[in-house]
Amino acid sequence: MLQLSNDEIVKGIRSRNKDVFEAVFKQYAPSMYNIAVKYVQDTDEANDMVQDVFLNLWKGAENLDYRAPINHYLARATVNTCLNRIKKEQRKETYTKEQMHLATPVSDSTALLERKELEAQYHLALEKLPEQCRRVFEMSRGNGLTPTEIATQLNISINTVYAHLTTALKRLRIDLINKS
Asked: Which residues 6+ apart lie within 8 Å of 139 measured at CB?
């Protein structure tokens, strides 16, 4: 295995020298794997993360800083990759729980009644909006159109679309808060 100084390693990676990159991988991948396993506690996932770290090192080779020791750079990149993956999994889990909660059928007649009442209040608040403002809001939220599509269809500027959406959201929020 090549014994290179940090400057030689950085210079080699920045110039995309495959031999230097391979030597760095062989030298540092095992310790990066150990770091990843401590965070994710899954060997396959830890391997994937180490691969991601080295892939990102190769992709961003020209941005590698000469001042940072390569082992510190790789360790920080590994930790960040692990933390990002953990956060992503937590967001997925939270989203899944929320979706399961929303998908739970309403069996309580009180909850159903409250939901219908809230929907009625929403529709009343929507009716209070100025016509153009309501139309823009319904096209955005009801039909799923983008602001650009709405601007094109209504022949208005995109800034006007954003202004209508802002106004609609403010007024609806105020109306619904005041009623509850």
From this structure: 145, 149, 150, 153, 154
What tens digit of pLDDT does each residue of 102-119 get? 765 555 677 777 788 888
How far is Cα of residue 142 from the mean position of the Cα atoms in its chain? 24
In the numeric block, the tokens 């400057």 are attached to: 7
In three-state form (DSSP H/G/I as H, E/B as E, the rest C), the secondary structure along the chain is CCCCCHHHHHHHHHCCCHHHHHHHHHHHHHHHHHHHHHHHCCHHHHHHHHHHHHHHHHHCHHHCCCCCCHHHHHHHHHHHHHHHHHHHHHHHHHHHHHHHHHHCCCCCHHHHHHHHHHHHHHHHHHHHCCHHHHHHHHHHHHCCCCHHHHHHHHCCCHHHHHHHHHHHHHHHHHHHHHHC
Q: Given pLDDT bands bounded at 50, 70 and 90, which one contains residue 89?
A: confident
Q: How many whole angstroms separate alpha carbon 126 and alpha carbon 175?
A: 9
| 39 touches 83 (CB < 8 A) | yes
Quote the CA–CA distance of 14 and 26 in Å, as a whole number. Answer: 18
Under a CB-based contact definition with an 8 Å cutoff, are residues 162 and 140 in contact? no
